[in-house]
Amino acid sequence: MLLSACGGAAPATPVATPQPSEAPVALPPAGVVRFIVGGDSRNDASHVLPWAFREAHARGASAFLFLGDMEITPQIDAAFAAQLEDLGRVPFYPVLGNHEIKTFGFMSMGVAAAERAFRTRFLGTARTPVRSALPDRVVYSADLRGGVHFVALDNVTENGFGAPQLAWLADDLAKASADPTTKHVIVGMHKPLANNGVSSHGMDRDGPGAAADSEAALALFRQNRVSLVLASHVHEFAKFDEAGIPAYITGGLGAPLDRGTPDHAFHHFLQLDVTDDAIQVTVVKFGGSQSVAEQGEPEDD
Questions:
Q1: Counting CB atoms within 10 angstroms of each CB, which of 95, 171, 249, 284 has the fewest?
Q2: What is the pLDDT of residue 128?
Q3: d(CA 295, CA 80)
Q4: Are 152 and 95 in contact (CB under 8 A)?
């Protein structure tokens, strides 16, 4: 049984129950590079986002990976931009969400202009030193500390990824996998891939073409040994497996929670602690409690 956008039963894919971590909040130990990840901060009545930004700074994060949906409508994204000051000097790598380009997330008015405004405001800055690889999308990759190659995909501007983006993805992943300095490839997108066994509130809803694009992207992920797949859009937490690749839905940065079970519906961010050999993912709930959700890499084929 699937988790819907409004919640539902526990995911069909077995998920290890996170165990409480007794470790105090501290800077990453020697040899560990830390990233903070989350998405969906629109309608943030509880002020989860500024807390997460301050925590990223306090925890010594090397970057904040944001998975989309900053504000309820693109017209007020400037308010989000002002909150980036809470990150201090932590770099910020955003993925495009549907609320960034569509009024209230679904009204397709001025999409091209909204996307251009997003690129101007959030890309090509000292904090985010990247530019889109495609002229009409927010699609890019960045080589981050710890040998991490981060890929940001756009699955909200159209239904699916589209042929140009898939061609770019194939080329980018091939180059990254051939680079001996790349230790891990992490892919971020707003909507979860289709047929993930956890939530149908993703690319499933965008039609058969989007589902085919999802399958094509997943095949590229497997072929190029992607380490981790991250998405938001669903206002919950979920850990699952995508064709042998660890995957997470993390839509808990302040948006109204979906009506899931307490194990899934809570405000949070993910902390990724990266070494050459592994990525440890810790779920940090709003209020400070945390639990280790994942250690290690996907197994060999």
A1: 171
A2: 95
A3: 32
A4: yes
- The predicted structure's pLDDT at residue 291: 56
CA-closest candidate to residue 275, choices 21, 61, 63, 28: 28
Helices (H), 27-130: 48-58, 77-83, 98-101, 111-122
Paired tokens of 37 = 């990840």
Q: What is the pLDDT of residues 79-130, one digit of tens each?
A: 788 889 999 999 999 999 998 886 544 545 567 888 888 888 899 999 999 9
Which secondary-structure segment (H or E) carries 214? helix 208-223
Lowest average pLDDT, out of 91-95, 145-149, 210-214, 292-296, goes to: 292-296
Tens-digit pLDDT profile for residues 146-178: 999 999 999 999 999 999 999 999 999 999 999
219 within 8 A of 9, measured Cβ to Cβ: no
Give the DSSP H or E segment for 249.
strand 245-250
Q: What are phi and psi of 204, to 5 degrees?
A: -55, -35
For the domain spanning 31-113+121-294, the CATH number is 3.60.21.10
Secondary structure element (H or E) that encloses residue 172, with its range: helix 163-178
Instruction: Report in angstroms the alpha-carbon separations of 110 from 95, 102, 116, 174.
Output: 19, 8, 10, 35
Which position has the token pair 């064709």? 243
**pLDDT averaged over the chain?**
84
Secondary structure of residue 238 in the 3-state scheme:
strand
The first and second tokens of residue 129, run together, are 């030193």
Assign 187 to helix, strand or coil. Answer: strand
